[in-house]
Design brief:
The complex is a heterodimer of chains A (299) and B (315). Chain A is mainly alpha-helical and 299 residues long. Helices cover 75% and strands 0% of the residues of chain A. Chain A has two domains: 2-12 and 26-85, no CATH class; 87-295, Orthogonal Bundle (MetI-like fold), CATH 1.10.3720. Chain A has helices at residues 2-17, 25-60, 64-67, 82-90, 93-124, 130-140, 145-158, 165-169, 176-187, 192-199, 204-215, 217-233, 236-241, 250-260, 265-295. Chain A is globular. In chain B, helix 4 packs antiparallel against helix 11 and helix 13 runs antiparallel to helix 14 (281-314). The longest helix of chain B is centred in the first third of the chain and has 37 residues, at 20-56. Chain B is globular, with a radius of gyration of 26 Å. Chain B has two domains: 2-56, no CATH class; 75-314, MetI-like (MetI-like fold), CATH 1.10.3720. The chains are: A mainly alpha (299), B mainly alpha (315). At the A-B interface, helix 1, helix 2, helix 5, helix 6 and helix 7 of A face helix 1, helix 2, helix 4, helix 5 and helix 6 of B.
């Protein structure tokens, strides 16, 4: 595939410069065709993938009639940015936002801290029962959340944790995958720096905060970003835990908006836009970390 | 927790004059504190409910009132396996697996192959194709319900130009399932593309060069070099795709609510309805146990595939 590409760039530059040996037209076409086809396929794919988000935004600033008008308009005849104001009047979206931010940040922070500590201990500290514990964790990784949710929710009910922030946050904090990743990270990391700081008299706690955590910063970063996106998008669990509006997160509030304002598509699209926007911003800022973490097996 | 705050000063004092061995043992004990948050939370919110799932699958349990009556033997399992709606849900999940998994993998591989080598615009294409995977499913499923609405939805307007009368995609068979499948494929392609991209970068450049010298065109090189070499990745994606299919809920809830007449109800949706709408905790737990057994089989298969992938890369 490189050769095709190189050939086509060579062809285009030589054509641009004018003089030089001209290739026969048929041969040039045969070389340019793969490039053309490649772009054609990718443009169709990009429009199919991203087009719905563009359409969502445009519909969110149209009047209710124009959102469903035939023939459809691409750009709104009249930009109705006050749809967003109307959305906040119809449902307490600012509350959903606050709840989502609170739950996502707290869960992500909890996941990072507990996984970092556990991963470090499994990689570096020797204590009786370590291997047994690790195998138990390995086995637990095979159990999807979907298997345990019915008794889990009734456990939360008996704790009085339904419709609470601790109910939304605490059960999601333990991350086996996170513990594995950090264990793997530390096993591939030289021990010299730690040994040096131990000789300097730093205890395991101080070493953890002042040496180990900073060393793991890149790993913490990519794990935190992916956790953030996952927790922000989480619907099923939050949907089971909350029934009262004051604890709705964005995904739950949005699904509720569908049942109360199902036909006001401009408002629904404004709500979707507000729920999607933060992850898009995070994605644009941290695209490389997200892609690397995903292709490294994180999901 | 109090131990956590009390120990550091003592430890520091000991580390100055203690021997290395004593040192290591003390640090070892700190290991328990380090792993405690993860393991204890996991035990309470994961392993305990798991044990309950297994026990409840043999009991009569009402999640609404919390009332549990003694063992009913295999009654729940016979209930589940003879329930026509559960069979329907299994069938729907199978339909999902045999459509979404190969479609998302095929498209993902094609896009990854087209984006394998650097060229102008490559980053933009990749970003755009990847975005559906990162967006919250509730939000993007709402966009689809807007696009697919019979009166005024963009898809039906487009079909109208071809003379097709409006189709109620989300409320009629078989279109509701088709819609769920198309949505899920659209949502997943970005992920499969990224995974295949990583696999394709591991394919040595020299293979392609050698094949080019032998006169192989791009399609031939893709079929004879790239495709066989990413086979282990395909295995990995197929199995994670199956496991993912067992967890499908959100798009079904938003797009169709499981309807019409249960035609888009998945296994997880069935468990949710039994447990939280009908309060049949026993059958819900029995189905969850079946899900667990199936999931473990798939995961074991996955582990063997992954270990094979490692050996392929090493050789």
């Amino acid at each position: 595939m490189t050769t095709t590409l190189e050939a086509s760039t060579v062809a285009s530059t030589s054509a641009g410069r004018g003089p030089g040996r001209r290739q026969p037209a048929s041969r040039r076409l045969r070389r340019a065709l793969p490039t053309f086809l490649r772009h054609a396929v990718l443009i169709v794919a990009s429009v199919a993938a991203f087009g719905p988000f563009v359409w969502m935004f445009l519909a969110s600033v149209k009047s209710p009639a124009e959102a469903l008008a035939y023939p459809p308009t691409f750009l709104p005849r009249e930009w109705r940015f006050d749809n967003y104001v109307r959305l906040f009047d119809a449902v307490p979206f600012q509350l959903y936002y606050r709840n989502s931010i609170l739950v996502t940040v707290a869960t992500t922070a909890g996941q990072v801290l507990t996984s970092l500590a556990a991963g470090y201990a499994f990689a570096r500290l020797r204590f009786p029962g370590r291997n047994v514990l690790f195998v138990v964790l390995l086995a637990a990784l095979l159990v999807p959340f979907e298997v345990v949710f019915t008794p889990l929710i009734s456990l939360l009910a008996s704790l009085g944790w339904l419709n609470t922030f601790q109910g939304l946050i605490v059960p999601n904090i333990p991350s086996i995958l996170g513990a594995f990743l950090f264990r793997q990270f530390f096993e591939g990391f030289p021990t010299e720096i730690e040994d040096a700081s131990r000789l300097d008299g730093a205890g395991v706690w101080r070493r953890f905060w002042s040496v180990i955590a900073p060393m793991a910063a890149p790993m913490i970063g990519s794990f935190a970003i992916l956790s953030f996106v996952y927790n922000w998008n989480n619907f099923f669990f939050q949907f089971l835990v909350v029934t009262r509006t004051e604890f709705f997160t964005l995904p739950v509030g949005l699904s509720q908006l569908q049942s109360t304002h199902g036909t006001s598509f401009n408002l629904l699209m404004a709500g979707s836009a507000l729920a999607i926007l933060p992850v898009f911003v995070v994605f644009l800022l941290f695209q490389r970390q997200i892609v690397t973490a995903l292709s490294g097996g994180l999901r | 927790m109090s131990e956590l705050h009390a120990s550091p000063p003592r430890r520091r004092a000991a580390s100055r004059d203690g021997t290395a061995d004593l040192h290591r043992r003390r640090e070892g004990r700190a290991g328990y504190v380090f792993v405690a948050p993860t393991t204890l939370l996991l035990a309470v919110f994961y392993l305990w409910p798991l044990a309950q799932t297994v026990v409840f699958s043999f009991s009569d349990w009402n999640p609404g009132t919390g009332r549990v009556t003694e063992s009913v033997g295999l009654e729940n399992f016979t209930h589940v396996l003879t329930d026509p709606e559960f069979r329907r849900a299994v069938l729907n999940t199978l339909v999902y697996v045999v459509t979404v998994v190969p479609c998302s993998m095929g498209l993902g591989l094609v896009f990854a192959a087209l984006l394998a080598r650097p060229f102008r615009g490559r980053g933009l294409y990749r970003t755009l194709i990847f975005t559906p995977y990162i967006a919250p499913i509730v939000g993007s499923a709402l966009i689809f319900s807007f696009l697919l609405t019979p009166l005024g939805g963009l898809v039906n307007q487009g079909l109208g130009l071809l003379g097709v009368r409006p189709i109620a995609f989300l409320t009629t068979e078989p279109w509701a399932m088709v819609s769920v499948v198309v949505f899920s494929t659209w949502q997943l392609v970005g992920y499969t593309m990224i995974i295949y991209s990583a696999a394709l970068t591991n394919v040595p450049e020299s293979y392609h060069e050698a094949a080019t010298l032998d006169g192989a065109g791009p399609v031939r090189r893709f079929l004879s070099i790239s495709l066989p070499l990413v086979a282990p990745t395909s295995g990995f994606l197929a199995i994670t795709g199956v496991i993912g299919a067992l967890q499908v809920f959100t798009q079904v809830y938003v797009l169709t609510g499981g309807g019409p007449l249960g035609s888009t109800e998945t296994v997880l949706y069935w468990i949710y309805e039994q447990g939280f709408v009908l309060f049949n905790g026993g059958p819900a737990s029995a189905a969850a146990v079946l899900l667990l057994v199936f999931g473990i089989l798939a995961s074991v298969l996955q582990l063997t595939v992954i270990s094979r992938r490692d050996t392929v890369e090493l050789s």
